Amino acid sequence: MPAEPDSKQRLLATAGVSVHYGGVRANDEITLAVDGGEIVGLIGPNGAGKTTFVDAITGFTRYTGTVELGGTSLDDAGPHRRRRAGLARTWQAGELFGDLTVAENLIVAVEGGGVRGALTDVFGRRRRTDQAVWNALELVGLAELAEHRPDQLTLGQQKLVGVARAIVGATQVLLLDEPAAGLDTEESVAFGGELRRLAASGLGVLLIDHDMTLVLDVCDRVYVMDFGRIIATGTPAEVSADERVVAAYLGSAVTT
Amino acid sequence: MSDILQFAVLGFSTGAVYAVLGSSLVSIYVATGIINFAQGSLALWGVWQTAALQANGTLVLPIGSFKLTDGPTDTVPALLIGAASCLVWAVLAHFLVFRPLRRAPVLGQVVASVGMMLLLQALVTLRFDADTLGLDPTVLIPMPILPSDTFTLAGATIAVSNLILAGIAIAIAAGMWAYLRFTKMGTATRAGAEDERALRLLGYSPDRLAALVWGATGFVSGLIVVLAAPAIGGLDPTSYMFYVVPALSVALVGRLTSVGTVCAAGLALGALQQILLFGTTKDWWPSWAQAGVGDAIPFVIVVVALFALGRSIPERGSAGVGRLPRVSVPRLRPLPVAGAVAVAGLVIALTSGTWRFSLVMSAIFTLIAVSVVLLTGYLGQISLATMAFAGAAGFALSKLTTNAGVPFPFSLFLAAVVSTLLGVIVGVPALRIRGAQLAVATVAAALAIEAFVFNNPSLTPYSGALIKDPSLFGYSLAVREGTNIITLRFSYLVLAVVVLLLIAVARLFGGATGRAFLAVRSNERAASSAGVDVAATKLLGFAIASFLAGIGGGLIGYSSGQLSAASFTVLVGLTVLAMTYVGGITTITGAVIAGLAGPLGVLYLFLNQSLDLSKYYTLIAALGMLLRAVVFPPDGGPVQEWLAARLPRRTPALATGAGSVTAGSVTAGSVTAGSVTAGTAATSAGTAAASTATAPSAGTTDGVAASAASAASAASAASAASAASGGPADSESSADSDSVTAADAAPSIAARSADAR
Ligand SMILES: Nc1ncnc2c1ncn2[C@@H]1O[C@H](COP(=O)(O)OP(=O)(O)O)[C@@H](O)[C@H]1O
Ligand SMILES: [Mg+2]
Fold first, then answer.
1. Do B529 and A91 touch (CB under 8 A)?
2. Mean pLDDT over residues A51-55, rounded?
3. Which of its termini does chain B have fewer beta carbons within 10 Å around, N or C?
């Protein structure tokens, strides 16, 4: 079991988040919370609206409702501000920077750019790579590949680089969109262990994945989504016993 | 009121051209996804061809010519042959240039279509000359073909020919619309890019369908321009080339999908420009806005279209920008840099007169090319406005030194600040659009600046805008002294400024800025999910790029003592882009090659003095651009793949340092260098390239070192640089991002084919 911090702090809180794509209600009044030190699962069949939810709360798609991080509203902030505020995500398709090395993919997320960055580049001293970058690569076990290009990595490794990129910086809540999709069973188990270590350090994690063993194993709580709605929530044991959930999703996924 | 009606109808002649060119652009885009900047140049050839036939029956071919008829050809055959010549060019362009590039990154496609644009314009100038025609080309005029009757309506005199032109434009657009909408082949064309395989199963060849669209649009573009030319005015070797810009702007108004809207917007734009022209003759019209208003309108339209229509302009292939050539971050090593600068200083000291002048111009154009590398190569934003930024600084420099008396280092800096501000403004559309559409917006901006500022007599006097010579602490840094056309002091001033800025750029590339740029270039949404402010980063890119170009423009101004608009035309800007792309658009060494090959640079002088070939300069630039885009694309093309598959790899030890330098890529690099230096340098380029490539450090040697070293000898430096940039850039194949391109293209294609209203 993941270590329980003494006082659970509410980090991410969404209330009534809804997303419309044309006539489709891809998210319908999603209210969900993630506390520090907690791994929360978000599961549901393909097309349920999980990715849409992540897109919405990270500022990549329009939504109604509210999103708060550590008690501060993020509703008026663009994606990069939400990331800098501590709400970090990964992408289902990896989406690494193909022109940068693995290490640089992470460095981009910690260093400041803009005019000040440019002036520092020209007039300042060369910056050393942030220790956090090495720590994050260490954590996902990819430190030896730091100087490689993403296209030299396997799909599973690319996903892990995406996770590492989301960890670095002042991340408080980590949103993982199917991070284990490219991993084999052994790697997936190892990845579960890494997630627990991350959560133990106080991070909140929202885990979306189809690997039921991983989700039921590492999560403290699970939300189940179908047709854009939360249809059930509870501990892994409660959720996997819920008939509606079995009907909507688990029935097929667990038995196969 | 009657005046307004009269001028509006007068505007139908240009409006008809915009409407047909714009509709053609949309049809080509729907069929192939290409935005064809060469559509105006195509028509330009047709006008000249018809005029030549009507003058003395000469049919001009790219090589050779013959008398089709003794004496003038009859009107109708001349018209049809002129339009047919455009058809032939369009079909050739499809099969030789655009079809091979259908899966290429957007930058490659834009470069190729700009290459076609320059090629045709250069050929028009070269081929329709006195020798070929047997008469002075300046006496050629477009002969009236349409009836010259007029009638009066509500007090306005209306020329029948203008109404006929509008009618023909509407008929042509309606024809295109009906073809795409109702015929089986048209429907298949729209679906073509979406799923080629399905199309083949249905028994259609996507190639032939696209060729049909290319040919038909080429023909009607030629036809309308030939018909409208007598009303629009005389013949000159560039005019219709840039009609593509207003045509592109109305194409954007039609969201690149709706032929009907484009036709209406084209006619309206023509009418509006004439009405504005009429307005400028009035007393109440502000005098500073008397010239160039009409030419500034397309940019206004582009901006309004982009912001009013929001994101509804379907995009395709935006992911392709990510497939730009690989970047190896420059490393600054003090010793090579110092050595190279010393060599450059020595060469400048040892030369004099025109040779020294061309070296200095090469240094300045290296700086301008670096601005292209930064903005387009590193940040992935295709801008065609580089020379406009440079010119704006030159213009500001003239005002600052002669009117305000600002002393030297501040004058240059403030002038560059002016162009920085301009760059940020022009960069705003980049927050909404990418790829080829951004290229359209920037070229429209460049034309607007050219017409409204450089060619505006109330801002830039005809006598030229003088620039006071620089001096520092009473020590003159003037470019001329007595009969010496270029002083050592001025040369060293330029060298110092350029070297310092190149070092600064190299540091940017190696720092947080370079990483943020590359992140945005690779994947915008991933960048913002990693905390990068994409909008601010793009504007920063535009700001830095226009600052660099501005310093370059200021130095050009100082080097001639006055501002001449001719140094900063859109055409020069396109040439600089061409040279930078040929040299290597992601490296500082590429910029150095561009500088050496750039306008008035060492290559130009070499062509001029040693071979007397300077009139072929634009042609060579265009061919270099096309060859580089189609045959040796920097992201890996057919030739590189073919060679890489057949030739053994170099020793594996090389693979770690600068990316694997394959023999294939080195060969490709040297061939490109050969084409730049007009063949004579090819042999030495090959040798130098091979020898450089064997030293692993060559690939990573920073551009600044190469920059100064290159001053020593144009040919060998160009080849060394191309080897340096060619190695890591060319050897990486781009198979990895295929899936991304395909995935991202799918929805946009769907959007594109969904409606052709
Ligand atoms: N950008 C979009 N535009 C329109 N519809 C979308 C878009 N993204 C997702 N959808 C639709 O929203 C629904 C939810 O999709 P998604 O969030 O990707 O599901 P999940 O991640 O749970 O598999 C699906 O019906 C999908 O087709
Ligand atoms: Mg999903």
1. yes
2. 95
3. N
Nearest to B119 by CA among B684, B652, B659, B622: B622
Domain coordinates in residue numbering, chain A: 10-97+170-255
Average pLDDT along chain B: 78
Residue B307 has pLDDT above 50, yes or no: yes
Chain B neighbors of A113, CB-CB under 8 A: 512-513, 516, 532-533, 536-537, 540
Structural contact between residues A66 and A15, judged by C-beta atoms closer than 8 angstroms: yes
Query: Residue B382 has what DSSP assignment?
Result: -
> Exposed/middle/buried for B121, CB within 10 Å: 0-12, 13-18, 19+?
buried
Interface list for A 117-156 with B (CB within 8 A): 117-118, 120-122, 126-127, 151
Measured CA to CA, the distance from residue B703 to residue B120 in angstroms comes to 33
How far apart are the C-alpha atoms of A13 and A21, rounded to whole Å?
23
Using left for φ > 0, alpha for ψ between -120 and 50, and beta otherwise, residue B437 falls in: alpha
Q: pLDDT at residue B697 above 90? A: no
Q: What is the pLDDT of residues B381-435, one digit of tens each?
A: 999 999 999 999 998 898 888 888 788 889 999 999 999 999 999 998 888 887 8
Predicted confidence (pLDDT) at residue B594 exceeds the cutoff of 80: yes
Are the C-beta atoms of B689 and B706 separated by less than 8 Å? no
Token reading at B33: 């996804």
* Type and span of the H or E element at B503: helix B488-510
Q: Which of B113, B50, B105 is nearest to B83 (CA)?
A: B50
What is the mean pLDDT of the segment spanning A26-36?
A: 94
pLDDT attached to residue B323: 55
Q: Which of B81-90, B298-307, B453-462 has the lowest mean pLDDT?
A: B453-462
| Between residues B315 and B509, the one the model is more confident about | B509
In contact, B247 and B266? CB cutoff 8 Å? yes
B 78-117 residues with CB < 8 A to A:
none
Residues B302-308, mean pLDDT to the nearest whole number:
77
Atom of ligand 1 nearest to the CA of A50: 22
- Cβ contacts (< 8 Å) between B516 and chain A: which residues? 108, 113, 117
Residue A75, pLDDT score: 93
Q: How far apart are the first and last CA of chain A?
A: 26
Q: Which of A20, A42, A51 to mutate to test the pocket of ligand 1 (most atoms within 8 A of CB)?
A: A51
Q: Does any CB of chain A come closer than 8 Å to the CB of residue B736?
A: yes
Identify the residue with better confidence: B685 or B528: B528
The per-residue pLDDT for range B13-58, each reduced to its tens digit, is 999 999 999 999 999 998 888 899 999 999 999 999 999 999 888 8
| B385: Cβ contacts below 8 Å, ≥ 6 apart | B423, B426, B442, B443, B445, B446, B449, B573
CB B650: neighbour CB atoms within 10 A? 20
Q: Above 90 in pLDDT, residue A55?
A: yes
Q: In this structure, which CATH number among 3.30.2310.20, 3.40.47.10, 1.10.510.10, 3.40.50.300 belongs to the domain A10-97+170-255?
A: 3.40.50.300
Query: By alpha-carbon position, which residue is closest to atom 25 of ligand 1?
Result: A47
Query: Which amino acid is located at A38 in the chain?
Result: E
Between A156 and A54, the higher pLDDT residue: A54
Do B529 and A97 count as a contact with CB atoms less than 8 A apart? no
Domains and CATH numbers, chain B: 2-309 (1.10.3470), 327-612 (1.10.3470), 679-756 (no CATH)
Please give the mean pLDDT across all residues of chain A. Answer: 88
B204 with B188: CB under 8 angstroms? yes
Nearest to B325 by CA among B652, B693, B727, B641: B727
Question: Could you tell me the pLDDT band of residue B293, with boundaries at 50, 70 and 90?
Answer: confident
Which burial class, exposed, middle or buried, applies to B632 when counting CB atoms under 10 A from its CB (0-12, 13-18, 19+)? buried
